[in-house]
Amino acid sequence: MMRTCRHLFPTALLLAAAAAHAAPQYVAAGSPLPRFHMLKEGSHRYLRYLQAADSNTPIDIWQRDLRIDGKTVQLRQRWDAAGKAPSVKWLDSSFEMGTLRPLAHTRITQKDGKKTVEGFAFAPDKVTGLPDLPANTQKALAVTLAEPVFNFEADIELLQALPLGQGYEVQLALYHPGGAAAPARYTFRVAGSELIAGPAGPVDCWVVTTDYNQPGTVSKFWFARSTQLMVRQESRMPDGRLLIKALID
Questions:
Q1: Residue ranges per domain, the chain?
Q2: Which distant-in-sequence residues (6+ apart) come within 8 Å of 5 by Cβ?
Q3: What is the 3-state secondary structure (H, E, C) of the chain?
Q4: I want to staple 245 with a disulfide (CB 3.0 to 4.6 A). Which of 157, 233, 235, 236 is the partner?
């Protein structure tokens, strides 16, 4: 029996090491999301602020409204900036039911008395500017895709619809419509769990991390284990300050 145990112990270590370094699961845009049912209609607001060593500076109030009509999912977002230079930004995104495959996306920014309109259509092989959207500044956009992508602007809902659990690691192809970065795959990993303060008391959360393809940097998300709703996100900025998004309600 002792010999058997001596042989089993290294084997168990090897299996654990292999599991720890297993390739992340790739979830293709358009495939059914295992926990899509965790997405619920409703509105949530977050406070975005920058934290330095001796101060907190508010940026804006960020509202996310989710609507599900049985055929499509509609995500509307609004940012109301704080400070002396007020601005407002609205996003309106539509997705396929059950998969969150992006269909269309519009972004309207009101700042310094100027209104900027941007609109995009998603297809499995390309992202293009919406041709019939009035005043669309992105009408000429045409981005060829090597593979279908998710809309980066819905990353929170996307992660909420995945089977988060200890050690879970996933790779997603994401694109920020109209952004400077090309479509790319990003890896997200459940690094553990943690009890943190929420708007109504302590919340037991999964801690999800990513480096956004920037080695040496880490962004963290806290998703409530019971609902998988995002409670908090922290990202270190190049100047050393911490960008925090904290759930208000």
A1: 24-247
A2: none
A3: CHHHHHHHHHHHHHHHHHHHCCCCEECCCCCCCCCHHHCCCEEEEEEEEEECCCCEEEEEEEEEEEEECCCEEEEEEEEEECCCCCEEEEEEEEEECCCCCEEEEEEEEEECCEEEEEEEEEECCEEEECCCCCCECCCCCEEECCCCCEEHHHHHHHHHCCCCCCCCEEEEEEECCCCCCCCEEEEEEEEEEEEEEECCEEEEEEEEEECCCCCCCCEEEEEECCCCCEEEEEEECCCCCEEEEEECC
A4: 233
Report d(CA 249, CA 247) in Å as an integer: 6
pTM of the model: 0.89
